[in-house]
Amino acid sequence: MTEKIKWGIMGCGSIANQYANDLVLSKHGQLVAVGSRSKAKAQTFAAQNGGVRAYGSYEEVAADPDVNIVYVATPHPFHMENTLLVIAHGKHVLCEKPIALNAKQTRRMIAAAQKKGVFLMEGMWTRFFPAMVQLRKRLAAGHIGKVIAVEADLGIHFKAGPEHRIFNPHLGGGALLDLGIYPVSLASMIFGAQPEKITSTVHKYKTGVDDHAVIVFTYTDGASAAVGTSSIVRMKNEARIYGTEGTIIVHEMFLHPNQLTLKMEGKPPRTFDFSYPGQGMQFEADHVHQCLRKGKSDSDIMPLTETLAIMQTMDKIRKPWKLKYPGE
Q1: Planar angle of CA 260, 215, 159, nearest 5 degrees
Q2: What is the tens place of the pLDDT at every residue in 141-153?
Q3: Is 78 inside a domain boundary?
Q4: Are 18 and 281 in contact (CB under 8 A)?
Q5: Chain-wide mean pLDDT for the chain?
Q6: How many angstroms separate the CA atoms of 226 and 242, rounded?
Q7: Claim to verify: residue 75 and residue 151 sit in the same structural domain
Q8: Cross-strand pairs, 227
Q9: DSSP letters of 99-122?
Q10: Are 34 and 46 in contact (CB under 8 A)?
């Protein structure tokens, strides 16, 4: 591909708007179509984004001959269905996190993409920010020695009622799937493995979904990660990585970071700024573009094997909570 990589978007919510706005800042991407179950909603979205084609169904976005790749930005329970639709049309997919409700759905999506020979990636945008690229480089270079512990939390106070998606089980509600996946995925990225042991405490909303949880991971080498997530209280929303030779802090909000602080034994702290335009989703988009230009069907930064492993961990976290979603 030498021309602009042409995107379609499924869904017209806030995350879809954010992606469309940041795609303008990407090096090689261009939005050409958007689809919603409401034609009027799609038309409004399209008018706000340069008059791209507006469709009143997801099928039409997947079938558009100009679309190279589709960003699936619908609610969690529809990710598998929408992704499989796009894959059936031979198109590539970037699916917003979490990629699915559970590992079973994730396996089905991966198998379909591999059979069709198309690119599929979970939209874990956090991994592609310049600050996170720098974090991985410093950890790989051993700047803080061996990582022994990670602490990360993401809590946002949603001042909403039971009909809101964050509390609605029919929309895949719950703090873990919506927010907790960020620190869970971060721990996976840092340790390069899933925990051997998982313990947790959970508080549930009146609709039955989790609204606050603290989770502890223990790894085979004795290292640990403490993960917090909440939809009813605001937490610190930063990540702290503790090594034998120092500490790295990823400042609030660590899911879209612009600052890191390095604390080394016997040295003054050093803070590094990684400011960026927009909301930062262009970094994820440009990584996808690089993968497509190289003919890759999988990402080396957010690989499908790890996406599946993380979803298996999420299933293990939920199991003792006795939290199952409609249709699971």
Answers
A1: 80
A2: 999 999 999 999 9
A3: yes
A4: yes
A5: 97
A6: 12
A7: no
A8: 152, 215
A9: SSSSHHHHHHHHHHHHHHT--EEE
A10: yes
CB count, 10 Å around CB of 137?
Answer: 10
Dihedral, CA atoms, 50, 60, 64, 287, nearest 10 degrees? 70
Residues 218 and 185 in one domain: yes
| Separation CA 240–CA 187 (nearest Å) | 11
Question: Is residue 14 assigned to a domain?
Answer: yes
State the helix-helix crossing angle for 181-191 and 304-318, rounded to 10 degrees: 130
Whole-angstrom distance, CA of residue 125 vs CA of residue 109: 19
Handedness of CA 157, 181, 292, 250 (dihedral sign): positive
At 7-62, the pLDDT tens digits run 999 999 999 999 999 999 999 999 999 999 999 999 999 999 999 999 999 999 99
Q: Hey, what are 232's tokens?
A: 């009813």
- pLDDT tens-digit profile of 252-266? 999 999 999 999 988
- Determine the residue type at 274: F
Q: Where are the beta strands (DSSP E) in 44-99?
A: 53-55, 69-72, 92-96
Contact residues for 259 (Cβ-Cβ < 8 A; gap 6+)? 131, 250, 251, 271, 272, 273, 274
The percent of residues in the chain predicted with pLDDT above 70, rounded, is 99
Looking at the fold, whether 74 and 170 belong to one and the same domain comes out as no
